[in-house]
Amino acid sequence: MWPDVAAAELATLAALPGMLACATLRPDVDGVFQIESLAGNAELGALLRSAELAPRLDPAHPAGRGLVAAAWRGARIERSSSYLDDVRTQAWHEALRVQRVRSIVAIPVAADAQRSDMILVLLGAFPRQFDASPMQHFAQGLQRRWRELRASRQRRLPHAVLQQDLAQSYRERLFSGGLEMQVQPIVDLHSGALRKVEALARLRLDDGALVPPGMFLPLLGNAELERLFRLGLEQALAMLREWDTQGLHVELSLNLPPSTLLAADCANWIGDALRAHGVAAPRLTLELLESESVDDASFADAVARLQPLGVRFAMDDLGAGYSSLTRLATLPFDTLKVDQTLAAQLHTRPIDTLRLMSTLIQVGHDTRRCVVIEGLEDEALIEAARVLGAHEGQGYAYARPMPAGALPAWAAQRTVRSQAHTRPRTPLGRLARQLRGRRHGAVDDVALQRLAEEVVAAAPERAGA
């Protein structure tokens, strides 16, 4: 599906005023850049595919001194104000003069933090076409968009690749009444009280089948993710008001995609929705997923635009993938959510994982943030998170995601007991207590190892239960 996505994006770009052609290029095993997708002037594509004019990685070769190679090597946007006067592009002057190319910008699209994945090239008809500040921001926005597009196609997808017609049917159904916001409780680890719920998007098909987010979110572009967020927010706030009428007062947590966070109208969308449903802003927490494709300055500016609303912010998936300590130190996060992949490792690598989790929890304490541990699937995990000092927990041990209408009954049937001073009963809980106590005095390493072996030995029984 990626070639179709790239072709559609390039076709949109090529239709812009003054755009002669645009293309994506990637070097082959010989270091020669090959065009993967092209839109616009086909003759320009033919020139760039020729053996003499194809850009190269080798800086000793005349075709290795241009903007494409420089963007790849330096992982930064390269532009030429007057292409025919630029000494870096001398190898192409005569050929491109005939095609009336006057300016160019080469935009590296990163596969990860260390390397480029491809180069997006725009060829313009006017001198200095990409020099003005708005066009520089435009190029930076394109870089972010293409990074997110690439990342969305590299996320975990089902083993069977969705056929295009099925993908299209998912999109159509999602925006024609198929979106169903389910909720998962977030519980105080010490008092046992229900504090808030996280609203989670699901797709309900015409036959009643429920499609998980991993099956449809990677299929959505930025505009569709914005639309999904707005629909989900409206639905979730309506649920919150309905629970209020039933005497159930909780807070709401909702994921805000990076591309939607950066949208200029994001604050207006959220403010309008809160006012329409009469919900106080502090009852809404926006979970911000870290993304290396969004630079710290842009991220901070986007959060600053939302702050006047009075909503709260959570750093999502802390401890997994990309996390910026700079953002943690400087941005107004109220909550840190520790990724469920850590909890999943507690039964098999208990000592190292408990130490890492303890460090993240301590960061939350030191910075006066609420710490939520995700992925708590059994009593042992709950006990370990509580002993280490986390504030709240979320996971199957409390409840699986459920329809909004089921939450009041779930809350009513629960027996809430304070666990604040309860001694650990599970090997994992006892190990967590020993490790936490180690900060204040000597703990026998042999005893730690013995407890760790008990944790690992008990894991298969829990997994099979």
UniProtKB/TrEMBL annotation:
Pfam families: EAL (PF00563). GO terms for molecular function: cyclic-guanylate-specific phosphodiesterase activity. Signal peptide: none annotated. InterPro entries: Cyclic-di-GMP_PDE-like (IPR050706), EAL_dom (IPR001633), EAL_sf (IPR035919). Its EC number is 3.1.4.52. Residues 163-415 form the EAL domain. Keywords: Hydrolase. SMART domains: EAL. This is Oxygen sensor protein DosP. The gene is dosP_15.
